[in-house]
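Dear colleague,

Following up on Tuesday's group meeting, I ran the structure prediction for the two-component complex that the binding team flagged. I've pasted the input sequences exactly as they went in, so you can double-check that nothing got truncated or mislabelled along the way. The structure tokens for the whole assembly follow below. Feel free to forward this to whoever is handling the docking comparison.

Inputs:
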Amino acid sequence: MRVLLAGLWARRGLNAAILLVAVTALGASLLGPMYGRASAEHLLDSRVTQRAPYVSGLSYAVPALDSAELPVGSPDRYQPPDPRDLVASASAPLDLPDWSPYWGPATPWLRDAGGQARFGSTTFEVPLYWRQGMCRLATVTGRCPQQAGEVLVQQTMARTLDLEPGDRLSLQFTESWLGPEGEFGGGRPQRDALARRDFTVVGTYKVPDADSPAWYDLSRFRGIADLVPPPAKGAGAPPATPALLTAPASMTSQTFVAGADRPLDPGAVDVADLDRVQALASRFSARTAGTSTAIRAEDLDVATLFDEVRAERSLLAQVTFAALAPLVVLALLLLFAMVSSATAVRRPHIALAKLRGHSRRQVLGFALGEPFVLIVLAVPVSLGLAWGAAAVIARTWLTAGIPVRPDPVALGSLGAVAVAALGAAAVAALGVIREPLATALAAGTRPRSASRWGLVLRSAVVAVAVASVASVLTSDREDGRLLGLLAPLFIALAVAVLGVWLLARSSTLWLRRTAGRGGTAAYLASRRLARRDDLVRLMVPLLLAVSVITFSASAAASADDWRVSRAKAQVGAAQVFTAAASPGRLLQVTRQVDPQGRYVAAAVVGDGGEETSRTLYVDTRRLARVAAWDDDWSTVPVAELQRRLDPGDGEPLRFSGRRVALTVTDVRLRSSAEDDPVLWLQYTDASGEQADVALGAVPNGPRVSLAAAVPGCVQGCTLEQLYLAGSASSVTDEQGTLTLARVRVDGAPVDWRLGETDAWRAARPFPVSMMDPPVVLEPRSGGLRVKVFLGHLPPGAGPQRAPVSGFARITPSSTPAVLPALIARGTERTPAPAASSAIGLEPAAGTRLIAAAGVNTLPAPLRVVGTVDALPGLGAEGVLADLGASLVEFEPTPGQLLSTQLWVAPDTPPRVLDAVRDAGVRLSDPQRLEAVLAGLRGDAFSLGWRIFLVVGGLTLLLAVFGVLASAVAQTRWRAYEVAALRVVGLSRSTLVRASVLEHGVMLGCAVLLGLAAAYTSLRLVLPQVELGGADPLAPEPTYAVHGWILLAGGAGVFLLALLIALGVSRRVVRLGRPSTLRSAEQG
Amino acid sequence: MTAASPLRAPDDVGGAAVRCVNVVQIYTTAGGHDVVALRGVNLDIRPGERVALLGPSGSGKSTLLSLFGGVLRPSAGKVLLDGRDISRLPEGELGRLRSGTVASLLQGAVRNLLPYATGEENLRFARRAVGAAGRRRLLPPRELLARLDAEDLAARPVRSMSGGERQRVAFAATLASGPRLLLADEPTSQLGHDDRDTMIALIHQASEEFGTTVVLVTHDPEVAQQMPRSITIRNGRIGSEGRHGLDYAVVDQDGAVHLPDELAGDFPAGRLVAFEATADGLLLRPVEERGEDR
């Protein structure tokens, strides 16, 4: 043992290097599974936290009155149960010890959804709610209800209804009972009656954190912010107000329910517990399915949640494994090289052991003792370091408090790599151990020729690389995920094998050249490289590391670019608010508060459908500044796209005043309707709101004077349309002509260009098709003659013979007839139909129109001015056009499923948003691009790619260290060689130049070939590798090579390698004195 | 050696006999050329004999030493140790042979030692292959070092020793396993006069005290003269032998005799000679080629 320790100390530098490399290999083998486990725990916690608590929590509820137990004869015979007793009944099924470790303590609650109140013309459901600790969770103004009949009213509701503490609020509850038996020959009929109950307002409340899991199920509150119901989990829910928070004593009706919740405690559930927790949840569901009321069985869906976690965990494990594999492989290669170097140094000692007649076992023990001790020593060291590193990484990247500890998988991985390390060390030493004694005793070493096994191994590496690439290219992405992630390593190894062969052969050619002519330095460098395969093999670790780091950096950059692209496609801008205002109003407000268009833009998003029904109408003049545009979506700059989207600068017709009068002449209309048609005026007022006023009925006759008040136009209005409709704005089938002769505003004549050619055109939507207007305009000196074809269209090729009805609309020509539009590449275009009537509008030659949904979801013709990979707020499918121009003809209808949004650019001053709010536009909580991006960056793929990058850096560090250590290990014989060359008269500078040149060529080749391997992987493998999980409408990733990463990485590594070469060369030449020869001779 | 206690147990005292029968050794150079190192060597060394092998570089003397030590196997012929042919022994048997019977002292002291270990540790390392029972019969390392006047080197690392000290420890390490045949390759080559004489004295003492057979290779005629028997190897053959200060030619298996160096110049290759028996022996007379032919 003392000899062993003395030997370890004697070669402490080399042994420290071996220890470090072994620690790296073993540490990586531990870190991977430990990080994977911690990440899986993080994902589990995140997914549980992200979902509503009722998805994973246990809830049980019992009604105060079973429908089968209605009171008989009179509602007064109903005796409400004590709410506390009912709560105890609801809590009982949850009180099972098996579930205690995983689910938190039960929180009781009471809810009565039976109360109703009428506000305005609408009857609302007004739920009563009590939850243990509710006044602590909510922000309460006033006091917490303590007695029966006391309530807290939600703050906005109180403001809307002008309720203050002390006010009384009446609700009506339905009371049911069973009538007398046999009244109509059957059983007892159910009778219902309304009973009024009064409540006293004792304060208001506000829910400061609507996402807090402490509320368990927010739908029990119904409307949180307003009297507008939030999206219900079920369909058909009646409009409901926010709940009134009350005391348990208030629960006296037949309809109240008592329940208790036990949310899943993410901190108590480990990944290892998933199956057990899932089984317990299933057991709970099965046990309570028939007994619990007022809970939705579909809510508790632990299986789906956990399946997602399992899938992410599996994915993360594969990514982590693939990320750490190169590091482990490199570390094992370096370990092999280091142990080989150490064994070469010990070669005479091993020969001495044989000379002294040591048995084979003793020789093996003597030769392998040192590396094995180092590897065994590396186990606890690596365990400590990996544990620490995993803890640091977990603290930095993962949820706080995630447990980090080595599990059986990690220990198994450690064992496997330890065995591999011992194997590598044994193989490295075996060559010397098996050497014949006579050869071992010889003074010099003769480079060993390649063994058959080495050749087989190298061929196998190349074959595996080729096979893996072929498999990755031909297999399904998900099936070949692990192989795809490992393929870059195989490629790098294959390139390394080929590179070593190539460099050796090239060096031979170089040697022939330098032997004949060329400098001494070049000759010496080429001679060494040509004759020493072991030197050439030094390039392998560096090549591997350069390939891994540049591939992983570029791939991680591509993955993050994609995440950014997905976030932009999902959100649309840095911040997006849902605005409680009409699109026209919001458009007007944004233009007022931000006239330069730097900060905000109005948008209407319809992202619920497919293809061209996914529409984004936005103030396109602000697109480039405000929208979150990703340059990868198009090769055309966004500024140019914005220019193409501009609908044009046609001057709209504007007017100011209180009353508009219109003279209509020569009215000759016929219709199946009895009433005269009505002429309507559509305009936008000063606030941006659209308005329609009926100018009056238009009977047939030579002259009709129409007039109407135009509210909101004193400050100026914009004329949008004039249209003929039936009475009460119903559709009409009028057929005939009329002439719009003159217009007066407040009695003064105004020029609406009724006599000008092309000043007006038919306005969409047309009743038959997008291309067949029901109106033909003929400007004349006496006014604008309007031919109306609402009964049937003039003969043509299409369905115009069929009876038609609708509105006959005209609009000033300043309204663009066809809007320019951007279309996402994944969108299947629906060509606009051809005109089919004699008056149909044909698009200009070469113009391709598509049909998309307008802002009112009616078909609108659009002219495609560009195709992009994705659109902000929509993703890979959909159409983008200008909002302002769209509103003239396709004004939104109330209740349609479109979202009116305020898009906000990054770094927008708060005053801009305040100005929007001050203008009366109510804004929701924003969806933030950064938050969405942070969410995407927290998924399993992201966590995996991050470790890929870190490991790439470690691989590079290890490789540089390996090159340095190997170079230092060669110092002894190199110094001997240098000394010999100096004896024959070579100068120190020549020898330094030769050494630097030799290293420079070798390491330069390593860097170049490493970059080539990375480039090959990026081109061939990366497009086949999943970069993340995304919905089908997410933009496709751009598999860019990121040339700057390759160049910067390669140049940096090469410079570093050159510095090492220079340092080592100078040291070797300094040590290579003639006295070195004498020392060497003396041993 | 200052004490009279034996290196091994009394019943184990005695040297090994070495016999070479027509030993031929051919090796292949790095360039792929075959070189004949020994050309049919026949040699008998008696137990306890001390023999110096002399000869120019490349004559085959170190090769012969390697054959005795079981480091090399002869291409042809036999090497017998105490009558046992070691030429075809398996490696394990050879290892056992080297662990006790035969010990080699390589040229260059450090090649015989672990430089990072102390003198005593080196001795223990050298006898590690000897079984526990065998080790009990050997002198303890420190005692052996004391016998060689190297007790002060027991606890010192080899690195810190001078050349002579290293050689002394190396010699002690070689003796540590109690060998019956000591093979020493140039044991005095890197030593000064004093250290050289000390080393020779130690060799003599070890042989005299334990009866160990000693074969050493040297270039140094002075060292050779201090050996009772010296054998000169020339061109892979035994050229001559010196015994007690007198040189003798050796008749080999084919009846060939190497001329002494001082006569070789008078008898260039191809020169005809005639043998004439005289009362004192045999007369070698050059023949005048033309006259005699007539």
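DSSP finds ten helices and 13 strands in chain B.

Cheers,
M.
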